[in-house]
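User: quick one, fold this
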Amino acid sequence: AEECPEPVASFYRRVYEGMGELGHLPFSAIWAAAVRKSERLCLTEAEARTLTELGGELGRYDAEAQGLAISRTASRFEAYLREAERTKARDGRVHAAFSVAAGLFTVIILL
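Assistant:
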């Protein structure tokens, strides 16, 4: 948490604070609660589900399996990022077209 920027640092602090419940709650539940309480991460439902699933694999398997789980999660988030970039580009073109149309409409009205 100390080495991460916000809001990721807050997420890791929530996980750390929840570790006091370890034994009463499984790590996956602590991780899932931290995901749910981290609204500032601005995760979509699919992104939150992906991050929650990672918590279910951490600490349950050997280091190699956990590394693979982290790699799979990173790949999925890279795909989410590419989709968000496509959506942003598409929406940006739509907004630009509306702006041009509004400008032309204003010019026509002034004539």
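User: anything notable?
Assistant: The CA atoms of residues 29 and 55 lie 8 Å apart.
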